[in-house]
């Protein structure tokens, strides 16, 4: 049986979870929104793993994955942070949020154009988005100023040339 559709289905589940996270953020159900971003991350890991396992990686899948990732780990976390934790910061929060989105898009574009290596160059947007989203769970401990610093740091790490480990060492022979 041909299972080549499975990785793209996981990518679409990632996109659906990220989109639903936006909806729950707008409805002020922030914890559900965070859970959906984490679910999107699980789907993001699964789509790549399944594509390698089934030997069905493609340029289409790579582009679809990046489009899903900018929603699930860029737009959804930024709106979550802006509406839940940075609503009183006004313009500065918006500027840093837009910076996070720009850096995430640059990171995804660079990833799509580079030859695969053993690790990542720059922090993957999935990790940055999950960290940013999870920071909402530390309500009392992270003041708005620290959240802005965290967003700025994550933005820098995404476009940096710093190496980050990749867990893509799955050997399909195993």
Task: Describe what you observe in this structure.
The chain has 174 residues and is mainly alpha-helical. A two-stranded antiparallel ribbon has the order 1-2. Helix 1 packs parallel to helix 3 and helix 4 runs parallel beside helix 6. It is globular, with a radius of gyration of 16 Å.
Count of alpha and pi helical runs: 6
Approximate shape: globular
Secondary-structure element series: HHHHEHHE
- Taking the alpha carbons of the first and last residues, their distance comes to 20 Å
Name the poorly predicted regions: 170-174
Which labels suit this protein?
2 strands, mainly alpha, globular, 174 residues, two-stranded antiparallel sheet
Could you give a short description of this structure?
With about 170 residues, the protein is mainly α. It has helices at about 5-25, 30-55, 60-85, 90-115, 125-135, 145-160, and strands at about 120, 165.
Mind sketching the topology for me?
Elements lengths: L5 H21 L3 H24 L5 H26 L6 H23 L6 E2 L3 H10 L9 H16 L3 E2 L10
Antiparallel strand pairs: 1-2
Helix pairs in contact: 1-2, 1-3, 2-3, 2-5, 3-4, 3-5, 4-6
């Amino acid at each position: 049986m041909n299972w080549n559709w499975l990785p793209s289905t996981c990518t679409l589940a990632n996109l659906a979870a990220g989109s639903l996270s936006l909806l729950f953020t707008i409805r002020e159900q922030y914890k559900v929104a965070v859970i959906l971003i984490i679910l999107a991350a699980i789907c993001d890991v699964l789509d790549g793993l399944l594509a390698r396992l089934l030997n069905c990686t493609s340029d289409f899948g790579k582009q679809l994955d990046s489009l899903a990732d900018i929603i699930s780990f860029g737009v959804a976390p930024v709106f979550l942070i802006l509406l839940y934790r940075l609503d009183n910061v006004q313009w500065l929060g918006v500027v840093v949020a837009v910076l996070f989105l720009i850096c995430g898009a640059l990171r995804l574009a660079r990833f799509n154009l580079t030859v695969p290596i053993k690790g990542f160059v720059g922090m993957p947007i999935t990790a940055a988005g999950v960290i940013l989203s999870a920071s909402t769970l530390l309500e009392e401990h992270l003041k708005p100023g620290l959240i802005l610093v965290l967003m700025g740091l994550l933005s820098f790490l995404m476009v940096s040339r710093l190496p980050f480990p990749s867990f893509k060492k799955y050997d399909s022979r195993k």
